[in-house]
Write a structure and sequence with these properties.
The protein is 70% helix and 0% strand. By secondary structure, it is an all-alpha fold.
């Protein structure tokens, strides 16, 4: 999503001169992010095999996590690409927002260290369930957190629909603003 905020502006020649499906620019960023994540996932699985000498069969749940994650990423990419045309400094704001969001999501720390009084706030973050599910299927051999994953999938669908709606609504003004 971070790179998508500049996807349209950095390709102004395609916006101004050529009839081009602009929706594909943020799509390419989202697909590149998924491909990058897959290489990281393969490296993580190799590390798990080296350290633990096993891979849980629950790894087969990986597509159930990747699909809603990709849908959320694509919706966010469309939204941020459109906003990046009109608000040029959004790139710096997105960097800060994503860094803060990473620290508010239990990615680099376990949920167990969050005080119980703050856990409801952590659970409101839709990415918490996604991270919990990734940990469960890869490290613990557990099935995904299905209710949490449903919550994340709903968030992803809303972000996807809103992001595409906003992109489609504002795209006719891209050439004028750039």
């Amino acid at each position: 999503m971070q790179l998508s905020s500049n996807a349209i502006v950095s390709r102004a020649n395609l916006v101004k001169r050529v009839v081009f499906p602009l929706e594909t620019l943020p799509l390419s960023q989202a697909l590149a992010a998924v491909a990058n994540q897959m290489f990281g996932t393969i490296a993580l699985l190799l590390a798990i095999v080296i350290v633990r000498h096993e891979v849980h069969p629950t790894i087969l749940y990986l597509p159930a996590l990747l699909i809603p994650q990709f849908i959320a990423t694509l919706g966010g990419a469309w939204l941020l690409a459109s906003l990046g045309v009109f608000i040029r400094d959004i790139v710096q704001g997105i960097n800060l927002l994503l860094m803060a969001w990473m620290f508010l999501t239990p990615i680099i720390y376990p949920e167990s260290i969050v005080p119980t009084s703050y856990r409801p706030f952590v659970n409101l973050n839709p990415f918490t369930a996604l991270i919990r599910s990734y940990r469960g299927i890869m490290l613990d051999g557990n099935a995904p957190d299905w209710p949490g994953l449903g919550y994340f999938a709903l968030f992803a669908l809303i972000l996807f629909l809103f992001g595409y709606w906003w992109f489609a609504r504002t795209r006719k003004n891209f050439a004028d603003v750039i």
